[in-house]
Structure formats: structure tokens, C-alpha cells
Amino acid sequence: MGYTIEFGGVERQPNIRMLHDMKEVVYDHEWFRSVDDMELYYMFRHLSLSEEDLKIINKSHLRYDITVIPPAMFGSEFIKTAGHYHPNVPGQEISYPEVYQVLEGEATYILQKHVGDDVVDTVVIKAKKGDIALIPPDYGHVTVNASDEILKMANWVCCDFSSSYAPFRDMEGGAYYLLESGFMKNHRYENLPEIRYITPTDIPEFGLFCGRDMYDLVNDTEKLEFLKSPQNFAGLFESIINV
Ligand SMILES: O=P(O)(O)OC[C@H]1O[C@](O)(CO)[C@@H](O)[C@@H]1O
């Protein structure tokens, strides 16, 4: 099967996340056992509109990706990404952040912050077309498509690290599942905080504006410095996540 997109006049081939990749993290294990493997979502990584842009992006140690998540249910749970954390920036006590923009459809971003063994903060950002959602340093994150439309979203991220999936797998998913009936705590996590809801927002300091295509930052990659050196922007991240 597969799914392709056209970007920069080129047909792009995705990495495909299969249902069986999600064995440990789905809420409804009974449903999981009752269905065959299937394609879930499509990840188009390292995109650029031109060769010139690609040189700039690579030189800047950045990555622009598009992810397409068609609507689906995992039994009673809405389709979601596997969930991952980013590692710390070498030599720093802070992990790499990321920024998403919804290109089509609606996204529900579920963020969780770990301190030691505990999740100390859980944040939900509901985003629609054009909206910007920042994943600050030290927040693991899952994207849910809780709609009946295709979700297409883009991200800018530093390309110098690999994501860590084990914390989500080990806990059988994120801190909260999003079910048809609403958010459900994952009881494998102890003392979970209640969800805080924040809204997508412009971040002028990073050149990010809801409704303005963030791909254009390829022409102003200094604005994306926060993705590589988050330690220099800690105060700003705090003010964005703690509104
Ligand atoms: O890596 P996951 O958790 O499957 O999430 C999917 C999306 O997240 C990213 O890895 C960026 O964090 C995208 O490249 C990818 O398409």
C-alpha cells in the first residue's frame, strides 16, 4: 500500500509506522490481539523544497519532516504516534526540543515531563491547521489524531540525535490515553498530575507564528537555534509552557 506526498516537485516515500510497532503502547490490548498488522502513519523525513534548501538545512543540523496520520481507532483509543523523548544535548542538563505545525486536520499533542521516576507535568495542546505547538526540552510527547480527517503535520528538529521510545514502551504508553470517552490515566504511572491545557501560540522570538508556514524559516535558520542550543533559551521555554 503506502502513501506518498509531493514536496518540492518530488514524490516522497515515507517510513511507515505499523500497528505491530505499537504493541506495547496501545491501551486496548484485547483489540490489538484481534486485528492483523496494518499501516498506521507515514513519516517523510529530511524534506526540502530545493537542493539549495537541503544544503542549508543539513549545514544547520536541522530536519524538516512531515507526518501524515489518517483517522483510525485502536479499539476505543484514537490513533496516536508511538511516543518518544529526546536525549540531553551533549554536556547539558536539558534535552532537545521540537516544534510542530499542523498543515491539515487537527492534532492533540500530549506532553509529559519526567523528573526522576515521576511524571511531574502533563500538558495537552489542541492544534488546528496553521497552529504551532512547541515541545519544550524534557517533555516526552505523543500526537493523537482524534478526528475523522487526515492529520498532516510538519516538524523542525535538530538532526543530531535519535529519539528514545523505551520510556513509553516500558510504561505501556504515555501518562494519558485519549479514548472515545475522553482522557484516561495510565495507572502504571504513580501520582499523575491532572492535565493542564495550553493553547497554540505565536513565538516571535523563534520566528514562529500560527498561520505562517514555518518551512520558511529555512531562510532564517538562526531563529531555529533554540532546537540545537536550548540551554540558551531556558527562561523562554518556561514562560511558554507555564502559561
Ligand atoms: O517517532 P514517532 O513517535 O513515531 O513520531 C512520529 C514523528 O515524530 C518525528 O520523529 C519527529 O519527532 C517525526 O519525524 C515523525 O514523523
UniProtKB/TrEMBL annotation:
GO biological process annotation, one example: gluconeogenesis
Known pathway: Carbohydrate degradation; glycolysis; D-glyceraldehyde 3-phosphate and glycerone phosphate from D-glucose: step 2/4
Keywords: Gluconeogenesis, Glycolysis, Isomerase
Domain Glucose-6-phosphate isomerase prokaryote: 19-189
GO cellular component: cytoplasm
Keyword Isomerase tagged: yes
EC number: 5.3.1.9
Matches recorded under Pfam families: GPI
Domain of life: Archaea
Reaction it catalyzes: alpha-D-glucose 6-phosphate = beta-D-fructose 6-phosphate
CDD domains per record: cupin_PGI
One example GO MF annotation: glucose-6-phosphate isomerase activity
Keyword Hydrolase among record annotations: no
Family: Belongs to the archaeal-type GPI family.
UniProt protein name: glucose-6-phosphate isomerase
